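Q: I'm writing up a methods section and want to include an example of the input and output format. Could you take the sequence below and give the corresponding predicted structure tokens, formatted cleanly so I can copy it straight into the document?
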Amino acid sequence: MNHKLKLFLISMVVFAVQSACGTTPAVQEPATPTPNACPTETADLKLYVNAQDGYCLLFPAAYTLLEPRFIVINPTNAPGDTLGDAWVDITVEPASGRTASQVADQIIAAAGSGFNITRSEILVDGSQAIIVDGLPGQDSSRRIFVVSHDRLYLLIFVPWYPTADGSSPLEQLFDVIMNSLKFVG
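A: Here is the clean output for your methods example:
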């Protein structure tokens, strides 16, 4: 059993005992994903739970997790800011009442005209998500904007060079994450 799951289970037992005794914790902790709310880990897919930011997801066991933000394909130890061959960067901030659509439209408008920017929609754990491809930047990227529980989740897949058959490791990572991402809290 991994260390985080052990800590989670221990904290749940402590909470249950405190509740039974009529005491409550002095500090309100962020909502912790319950095991049944998160997807199930397999031999090929690892479970990542980020209780502070209110989400959990699966990622391929062959890839490297650099907590709290990056899942990296073929990490490198070279100096500089290169993480590896490809990665996803996950950031979370208050949505402040904005929708995913509003945030994506604002980013697209700020880029200006003259770019081949595409925008599409999907559902992620029942929430509207906006996929934006073609934004200008140092590397080609795919950005996904999702709002859940008044938190803005931004997932950036870099470098995004899609293949016709979806066979690239980054496209496969995209599929695994988008199909397993769950929001809690």
